[in-house]
Amino acid sequence: MSTHELGNQTPRITLEASADELRCRFEAIARLQGGSTYYQEELGIFRNYIREKDLYLHTSPRELSHPPDDEGNEHQVWFAPDSHSYLKATWPDFFGMRVVHRHDEDPKASPIAYLERWSLHNEIFGDRVEFLGVLETDGQLRLLISQPAISGTPATLEQIHDFFSLNGWLRFTQNGEIAFFDPTRNIVISDTHRGNIIRMDDGLLAPIDLRVEAISGSLRDSVLKLCENYSH
Question: In a 10 Å sphere around its CB, with 0-12 CB exposed, 13-18 middle and 19+ buried, how is residue 36 labelled?
Fold first, then answer.
């Protein structure tokens, strides 16, 4: 099955539409509770959403029948030559990590946060990531996305720093790694190592797999203080 055929299994719902709808649902619950939602609550909201929208994949794309071309902390990755793109499947019941979180929150990203991450990635960096659906095996969920392949070489650390700092991002450290904060959009980004940012043939940089998260309230205040401490 090609990725094109995969997309025709059910009426397609865009990544952005799914992220927006899920955000509205968990924000509504958070307002009722007078606070934030928690990981298990968001997981329940997500399961209800994918059942309602029939986003389960009943057949895996043919690429997934072969060993992955690459593996990382968050995904297994296959190259799809027909569409010149990469298929990325999250590890079972693991959807990445949060960039920052409060002390009483789970550091793991929920599937809702995962889709929000890629929606922001498309918006900020002009990427064209698509959400293809959900695979479930033995009750465990794997989210499947596709991302256009990009040619180039890993950017240097200096190029990565300049890429963000010259565009108004503030630098801070979180859990021992470099992260960046955009105070105008209230967006934080981490996992900015060389393997995740490609220098294309035209000299421009293309982020391909960053953690991206919108923040507000006391969490924003804490990040801003981290940025101030770093600059001093």
Answer: middle
pLDDT in tens, 88-141: 999 999 999 999 988 888 899 999 999 999 999 999 999 999 999 999 989 999
> Residues 196, 210: contact at Cβ < 8 Å?
yes
**Residue 231 in tokens:** 């600059």
Task: Kindly report the pTM of this predicted structure.
Answer: 0.91
Contact by Cβ (8 Å): 187, 120 = yes
CA distance 90 to 103: 25
Q: Residue 147 forms beta bridges with which residues?
A: 86
